[in-house]
From TrEMBL:
Occurrences of domain ABC transmembrane type-1 (ranges): 15-203
Name under which the protein is recorded: Amino acid ABC transporter permease
Spans through the membrane: 21-41, 53-74, 80-100, 181-206
Coiled-coil features, chain-numbered ranges: none
Keywords: Amino-acid transport, Cell membrane, Membrane, Transmembrane, Transmembrane helix, Transport
Family that this chain belongs to: Belongs to the binding-protein-dependent transport system permease family. HisMQ subfamily.
Membrane topology qualifier: Multi-pass membrane protein
Localization, UniProt: Cell membrane
Chief location category: membrane
InterPro entries recorded: AA_ABC_transptr_permease_3TM, ArtM/GltK/GlnP/TcyL/YhdX-like, MetI-like, MetI-like_sf
Length: 214
């Protein structure tokens, strides 16, 4: 317990950093994921092509490489931002590709007749998608989206290697101070467990309220 009690502020700062990264990157991933999923099923070929390229590139790119591309590449184009914001961009964009595929799979579970009926009533594609298809698809994609955001929370550990304050990064300071590495990592693991179980509990509530009965 001494490792935790002596460094409670450090652990607290790291946990807060991980929570902030997870929340902001999750919001970005959800927004981009739903937009990209809409592009993937859009009747416009160029939008479908954009969605396909986005998902294919990001899903097949190592997250660490994406961090290097964002943190080292964007400043070369004059875009200078805080490291935490760069980390949010990398995590959010990477995770959005997996959110997109989860949402698209949910859209595919909605009977085709639903969309055809909406179009026969004169509804546009955005209206059909937003008012008819997505509300039904959302019920089936709650569990995979929850799992994806849990993975995002764990992936945020990579940000610590790029000067971003987060939970895993606290081990360097504690190691330099001579604390036990084993107990240092045990309390770090407990912190990640708190974050992931919180996300799991949230999506369990959402699934229980809106999910499809199985």
């Amino acid at each position: 317990m001494n490792v935790l009690l002596d460094n409670l502020s450090r652990y607290g700062e790291g946990l807060l950093g991980t929570v902030e990264l997870t929340v902001y990157a999750s919001l970005l991933a959800l927004f981009l994921g739903f937009v990209t999923a809409a592009c993937r099923v859009a009747p416009v070929r160029s939008l479908r092509a954009f969605g396909t390229v986005w998902v294919t590139v990001l899903r097949n790119t190592p997250l660490t490489l994406l961090f290097f591309a964002v943190l080292l590449g964007l400043p070369r184009f004059g875009l200078v931002l805080p490291f935490q914001l760069f980390a949010v961009l990398a995590l959010g964009c990477y995770t959005s590709a997996f959110i997109c595929e989860a949402v698209r799979s949910g859209i595919n579970t909605v009977p085709v007749g639903q969309g055809e009926a909406a179009r026969s009533l004169g509804m546009t594609f955005p209206q059909t998608l937003g008012d008819v298809v997505l509300p039904q698809a959302f019920r089936t994609v709650i569990p995979p989206i929850g799992s994806t955001l849990i993975a995002l929370a764990k992936n945020s550990a990579i940000a610590g290697s790029f000067s971003v304050v987060e939970l895993l990064g606290t081990y360097r300071t504690l190691s330099e101070l001579g604390y036990s590495i084993i107990w240092t990592f045990i309390w770090i693991a407990v912190g990640y467990l708190i974050v992931t179980l919180s996300i799991s509990a949230l999506f369990h509530v959402l699934e229980k309220r809106w999910g499809v009965a199985r």
